[in-house]
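P.,

For your records, the input lines for the assembly:
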Amino acid sequence: MRYPFPVGDADFIQGDEAIARAAILAGCRFYAGYPITPASEIFEAMSLYMPLVDGVSIQMEDEIASIAAVIGASWAGAKAMTATSGPGFSLMMENLGYAIMTETPLVLVNVQRSGPSTGQPTLAAQGDVMQAIWGTHGDHSLIVLTPATVQEAFDMTIRAFNLAEKYRTPVILLTDAEVGHMRERVYAPHPDELELVCRKLPANEEEAKYPFGDVHGDLVPPMPIFGKGHRTYVTGLTHDERGRPKTVDAEIHERLVKRIVGKIENNKKDIIDYETYGLEDADIAIVSFGIVARSAMRAVKELRKEGINAGLLKLNVLWPFDFELIEKIAENVDRIYVAEMNLGQLYHMVKEGANGKAKVELISRIGGEVHTPGEIVERIKRDLR
Amino acid sequence: MYLKPSYEIRDKYLRKDMLPTIFCPGCGIGAVLQYTLRAIDDLGLNQDEIVWVSGIGCSSRVPGYVNFDGLHTTHGRALAFATGIKMANPDLKVIAFMGDGDAAAIGGNHLIHAIRRNLDVTVILVNNFTYGMTGGQVAPTTPKGLRGTTAPYGSFENPFDIAELAVAAGANYVARWSVFNYLQGINSIKKALQKRGFTLVEFLSPCPISFGRRNKLKTAPELIKWYQKITVPISKAKDMPPEELEGKVVIGEFVDRDRPSLVEEYEAYKRRAKKIMGWEE
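Structure tokens returned:
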């Protein structure tokens, strides 16, 4: 297999470009998108590379159609991805729900910009945390990954595909204009070095009869892709194990939705990923993610230089959420700060996790600029005075 | 064409555990479905290489009743999903079974762009001039002056002519019939299924419950008689002045051509890319 970019080597590239390259190395062969700042570079890179690796990259009429085409491609057997930003992300919410309900593996990248509405198209924000987790209607769960560096954007894109395939679910890669547009050194492994996951296919015709049934006892049904003679019917309506619509049966609805939620929530340990620094002896914890976590890291180091025992929890996965981890941290620190580029979204989850065992404070920044380490340091020192 | 008994078609292609259908007495969707299945049967197409796609509405329930791979999607979006299926696996034949509200209102933009791309798909469009499932609201196809629950005094908007729209946007094959024209209908579907690119066969299809009874057309026979009255064959329509065509629906084959399809264009595009990059001669 020949690749149109360096593999088994390092390169100096943008976050958006890294996401596109990683997707191709993860086996993505279908991309559908619509131009939008600051995610267009992902689409442009895909358009350049896909025809060369016998994949498809196609510009749709809008973001609704983009995610729809990706879902269709996934049922036709392809690993598939789309990328967008705020306004397009809003348009995708309906079909994101369809992907959850039909248990369709796909990767949806949101390179966040400032909202609401058209907002600040070229500037970064973290205002879509709540929307990524709760944006589509109805009870549901899904996976949200969030990178802080270009290398992480690369690595997490591969992980996003692996998780999507493993759990037969949409996975959101929630990044932002800073990470998307920043250039950093990225090592792209050769695909032989990568551990890639592909969806479970039905082992036999009996298994294929139950595309929405817990046939393996792991809550993740094998996926009978189209054109293999399984004659699978897929619907967004509430359906039974065979996929037949059952729209007025409370028990069937509850069983289906609880399994779809359960396959994520019961596998928290496998999915959740975070890093800590200095939390062991910390009196003050900073919880952060994405680009802001890099400022928070620097702030923790500065504070420790000044004799203040600060520690960092950097979240790499925003959902499923480790409420117990936050509670454990809350038991050992005096105060938790949540630093994020919005008016308080992760903050609410941290507050729930802390369960009253430590005071939870928000260090908020909006308008398109990332918190400086100094701002975080100053805020914490002011509170300590 | 040999017209097999209906039960043979039913037993071969329908999922028995899904019957009865949700369709009301007098509904035309069953007839259009039968024409489609007869066309597939007559052509001897492989059931396992066809995927049915639909959006939301009465006619969009059809993929659930037929024993094929099927994707019952969100309202209006069937052709966007179909684009992904076909482009990811061009060996699959894709049939989109759509209603007029689904295809021309909420899905209007997807329809236009799927046609513009000449996506390899066969659209079977059931046009009953109304939103049947939600109780008879006016549609973008409702003839001006006719009633629906959201225009109880008669529609004040101009209707879409979906077949003409499809021709203008670049489809390879477009035909329109009423459910009454069953032989022409089956033959058109057969033609459509054998072509590359975008093909569309539209059927005027009775909805006596949600549409007819609000418009003094209470039964399917009354609606079919009305179709006979308002439809004009395309050969005859050519020589008719516009005032005479007012309030009429033209039926027949609108276009039959062989412009390169999306799949063909993308294959050529891949070769071009590899050549430009020096990967291939």
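Two observations worth noting. The longest helix of chain A spans residues 150-167. The mean pLDDT of chain A is 98.

Regards
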